[in-house]
Design a protein that fits this description.
Blueprint: E1 2-11, H1 12-21, H2 25-29, H3 39-55, E2 67-71, E3 77-81, H4 83-92, E4 96-104, E5 107-115
């Protein structure tokens, strides 16, 4: 059963400019595993983090570091949710996450489904 859906889009150039303007932002938004990726991938991962929050109902107190996008052995993106985000997901009954990332034409997007 679908318990939550989140989608987010990010203007890649605007996102790049924000990271260049505020270098510390990279560490506040991305885990060590994510930080060194290309800007398009970072923008898509930021969209995924925002989509996770939306899928959970946008509760207060979540950190962007609590949602990490990794690649499984086949290269598919997968979510690892920790901390307060994981606790909210547990309370909602989320047992599995689905994530899709894309970037083209200067825009990155992510679609997240929380399944129970």
């Amino acid at each position: 059963m679908i318990l939550g859906i989140g989608v987010d889009v990010v203007d890649i150039a605007r996102f790049r400019d924000a990271l260049e303007r505020t270098p510390a932002l990279r560490e506040r938004l991305f885990t060590e595993v994510e930080r060194d990726l290309a800007i398009q991938s970072l923008a898509a991962r930021f969209a995924a983090k925002e989509a996770v929050a939306k899928a959970l109902g946008a509760p207060r107190g979540l950190s962007h570091l609590e949602a990490e996008v990794r690649r499984d052995r086949s290269g598919r993106p997968e979510l690892c949710v920790t901390g307060e985000a994981a606790e909210v997901a547990r309370r909602l009954g989320v047992q599995r996450w689905h994530v899709s990332l894309s970037h083209d034409g200067g825009v990155a997007m992510a679609y997240v489904i929380a399944e129970g």
